[in-house]
Write a structure and sequence with these properties.
It is a single chain. By secondary structure, the chain is α/β, with parallel strands linked by helices. Helix content is 29%, strand content 21%. It contains 16 helices and 28 strands. Strands 3-2-1-4-5-7-6 form a 7-stranded mixed sheet, covered by helices on one side. A 4-stranded mixed sheet has the order 10-16-17-18. It is globular, with a radius of gyration of 30 Å. The chain crosses the membrane at residues 12-34.
Length: 565
């Protein structure tokens, strides 16, 4: 009997030890996969799909040299690169993944070309590598971009292959794939610019990278880095060339427009333009990222100089790289100003407008002097017809909605591109008080999107304040409530303005006290409180509690409306 008890006790102890050993092993194995969630920037292990792997290899086609994969995971990118002849290195914090990668490299006979290290990617010196691959997350990309710009500037030729999330301010020379399999092949111009400055100055310069979503020069750059820290500004990416704020007017600014375009982009644009009838009566506008492409179209006589608008520059401290200089001029009596462009002939001389780029600024979309506006997007290989009258009617409808007495709570969004905020706040408050509207000032620095604005679900409209006429911030915000610019808000408050080809007369009267329901054609009422922490309830799902018929009548005074509207 005692033997049986001892045997049972031994089995129990062995089982307990086995369970404990299993538990400790599971913790030891799983801990490296769980701890990334506790770090400041969470970069979890998500294996690259076969599509992502093939897209990365396609982006590396034709390149050579040393390669590093930041966050190499199970090592598949490094091993494939080693098979193609790259001297490939992978850095990874997960001990088990590093061990697995080393064993697999030895089994495949690639251990001479493929090496793996357990190391934090932020401590890696990237200056030794010509090719950098990163499967990143959105939060880390701005910080990583600063590290890349600082450490890769010594390389004559280098490429950054970003997967899943692109670098924020770098313009890709190639985009491969779609969705989560997208790969951005980026070639930074900072290297050549830094080398130019260092070769023309006697002392070594310090460089700072500031990410901003403004389309003009960020006037907060000196404030970000401290007083007397900045002597000059280099501006990459698209720019609407609005005037420099007074706070940084003394700084020299270099605009870099030397973006590399794919030859397929050029062939697509060339084929389309050669088939355009009456090209001589067509005005050509473009994004600044398309300067190189437009210069080539001019050099091969696909476009005529008098049809291509020049970039309007009236700031003496601005300078441009070589390709940009060919399309830049200062305003004088020979040119007609049109937004950020200067045109050799009056606008009425042109019947159509072709805009080369990814989207047409709202300033040009609502201009009714053109019979047809075509968006020519070489990178996406598509063309889109824009109806300017329809676009202007949309903006007018938003202004009318803003005038409504039901539109009381207005959010005014300040971005980091607007100076003299205090002065403008008082001006907006005076307009709002006159029309009995309540103003909420919102400051959004670095990014402006509907996700952040969704937290203000009880507001009836938003006004985006910027120091330029560009509409790119408004175009990027998709909300169920009106999002207007400052000019549109002024019109809604009765200020006289010329907008969308119409002279809006001033209205000095205060808000009317008449019943708003008398103006409605049909009124539909749902739950009065249909928002919760910024989440709008879909009105199609909710059964209306009441439908009331409003005024009846026949629409009139539309004789001048276009038949296509």
């Amino acid at each position: 009997m005692l033997d049986t008890c001892d045997r049972n006790r031994s089995i129990g102890q062995f089982a307990a030890a086995a369970f404990a050993a299993t538990g400790v092993s599971l913790i030891a194995l799983s801990l490296p996969f769980v701890t990334p969630a506790l770090r400041r920037v969470c970069l979890p292990f998500v294996p690259a799909t076969d599509t992502q792997l093939s897209n990365v290899l396609l982006a590396l086609k034709g390149r050579k040299g040393r390669l590093i994969d930041l966050g190499s995971g199970d090592g598949r990118i490094v091993l494939k690169a080693a098979q193609l002849g790259f001297e490939a290195t992978g850095v990874e914090l997960n001990f088990w993944l590093v061990l697995y990668s080393k064993i697999k490299a030895r089994l495949l006979g690639l251990n001479r070309l493929a090496s793996f290290h357990r190391q934090n990617l932020w401590n890696v010196d990237l200056s030794k590598y010509e090719n950098v691959v990163i499967f990143g997350v959105d939060e880390m990309m701005p910080i990583l971009e600063q590290k890349l710009a600082k450490e890769l500037c010594s390389q004559k030729d280098y490429a950054v292959i970003a997967c899943r999330f692109p670098l924020q301010t770098a313009t890709p020379i190639k985009i491969i794939g779609a969705g989560i399999d997208t790969v951005w092949s980026l070639l930074k111009f900072a290297s050549s610019v830094v080398k130019y400055f260092e070769s023309n100055t006697d002392h070594k310069n310090e460089y700072y990278v500031v990410y901003s979503d403004t389309c003009s020069v960020d006037h907060l750059s000196p404030l970000h880095l401290g007083e007397n820290k900045i002597n000059a500004i280099i501006r990459f990416g698209n720019a609407c060339l609005s005037s420099t704020p007074e706070t940084i007017s003394e700084f020299p600014v270099l605009f870099v427009f030397d973006f590399v375009f794919d030859n397929n982009d050029y062939e697509f644009a060339k084929e389309y333009l050669m088939n355009v009838q009456n090209l001589s009566n067509t005005l050509i506008l473009y994004e600044t990222s398309q300067v190189n492409l437009v210069v080539r179209l001019l050099s091969e006589c696909i476009l005529k100089s008098e049809n291509v608008a020049k970039l309007n520059v009236n700031v003496s401290t601005w300078s441009f790289t070589e390709s940009g200089k060919k399309l830049v001029c200062s305003p004088n009596g020979k040119f007609f100003e049109f937004g950020q462009f200067l045109v050799e002939k009056e606008l009425k001389s042109f019947s159509n407008l072709i805009f080369i780029g990814s989207f047409v600024n709202g300033f040009y979309r609502i201009n009714n002097c053109f019979q047809e506006i075509i968006l020519l997007n070489p990178s996406e290989k598509i063309t889109t017809t824009i109806h300017s009258r329809r676009e202007s009617c949309k903006r007018v409808a938003l202004i009318e909605k803003l005038k409504s007495s039901k539109c009381k709570r207005i959010g005014v969004i300040y971005t980091n591109s607007y100076p003299n905020v205090n002065k403008l706040m008082k001006y907006i408050e005076s307009l709002a008080k006159k029309k009995q509207k309540q103003i909420f000032f919102i400051s959004l620095v670095q990014s402006t999107d509907e996700c952040k604005l969704g937290n203000f679900g009880d507001l009836h409209a938003f006004v985006v304040v910027s120091d330029c006429y560009c509409s790119h911030l408004i175009d990027n915000i998709k909300l169920h409530v009106p999002v207007v610019n400052l000019t549109e808000f002024e019109i809604a408050c009765g200020i006289s303005r010329n907008y969308a080809g119409v002279q809006w007369e001033s209205d000095s009267s205060d808000v009317e006290n008449e019943d708003e329901n008398e103006k409605q054609l049909v009124e539909v009422a749902t739950v009065s409180k249909n928002f919760w922490y910024g989440l709008q309830i879909n009105p199609e799902i909710n059964e209306p509690s009441m439908i009331k018929e409003g005024q009846r009548g026949i629409a009139c005074a539309y004789e001048e409306e276009s038949a296509n509207l």
